[in-house]
Amino acid sequence: MIKNNIIYSIVIFLLIITGPTVFAQDIQKSASISLKSKPIPLASFKHGDVGNPSIKGIVKISNNGFDITAGGADIWGVKDEFNFVYVERVGDFDLVSRIESLSAADLYTKAGLMAREDLTADCRHIYFQVFSDNNPRNKNNGGYEFQYRQVKDSAMKAIYPKRSEGAPEFPVAYPNVWIRLQRTNNDFTGYYSTDGKTWKVYTTFTLELPSKIYLGLAVTSHNTSRTSSAGFRNIEELKN
After folding, report:
1. Which of 48, 113, 175, 177 is deepest in the core (most CB within 10 A)?
2. For residue 90, how far is the Cα from the chain centroid?
3. 108 forms bridges with which residues in the sheet?
4. Residues 81 and 52 sit within 8 Å (Cβ to Cβ)
5. What is the pLDDT of residue 16?
6. pLDDT digit string (tens) for 51-87?
7. How many domains does the chain have?
């Protein structure tokens, strides 16, 4: 009887000391599960100019993606001018695209992923975007930038990299420029990647946009007399 009690006590002791280890391994295994990607049908997208650019945008389907040629003064200030390729989306999302190329019509030519309240020029929105190269810009020594308009008909703002000198933390290197915009409730997170598999967080910003928004690809030349062309490929949504 005493022997059985000793064995029972040892078993209980081992369960106590090993239990947390097993649980931690389960958590680690769950955390390591990769996200699955699902291509978004290109036919589901609409497109058009926002604002009133003097040169109208052109959108073509090419190599399982979009080639967008856009004019427009900018996506900045209190009103925007750009070309938008979009779907209407309700609730959370996790949108990914590889930007294969972006021609420069100006130092501040931009292309990226946008979540927009509506299609008016001065509405609230989130815009995670890239520039055509890594030349120094205002408070930015890389190719990525996270921008937003928090209040309708008010000036946009930007979140810059932590450092503005030295080697860029978020450089662009076409054709392997991967960009990702995720919404969880009202938290919007921008991610950077060079291969579409390993992601690094650029920033997270909270903006109370409606559940239903316009989500898609936005390009502006930042030059009213010239166009810029951007090639978007691998347009997908990530799922757990």
Report:
1. 113
2. 17
3. none
4. yes
5. 34
6. 999 999 999 999 999 999 999 999 999 999 999 999 9
7. 2
Q: Reduced to 3 states, what is the DSSP secondary structure of residue 198?
A: coil
Q: Are residues 174 and 224 in the same domain?
A: yes
- Please give the structure tokens belonging to residue 214: 């316009």
Alpha helices in 66-216 (DSSP H): none
Looking at the structure, do residues 83 and 143 belong to the same domain, yes or no?
A: yes
Q: How far apart are CA 177 and CA 34, in angstroms?
A: 20
> Residue 63 has which token pair?
């190599």
What residue numbers bound the domain in which 200 lies?
A: 36-239
Q: What is the pTM of this model?
A: 0.85
Tokens describing residue 125: 């929105």
Q: Which residues of the chain have pLDDT under 70?
A: 1-34
Query: Contact, 38 vs 205, CB < 8 A?
Result: no
| DSSP sequence for 10-67 | HHHHHHHHHHHHHHHHHHHHHHTPPPEEEEPPGGG-EEEEES--SS--EEEEETTEEE
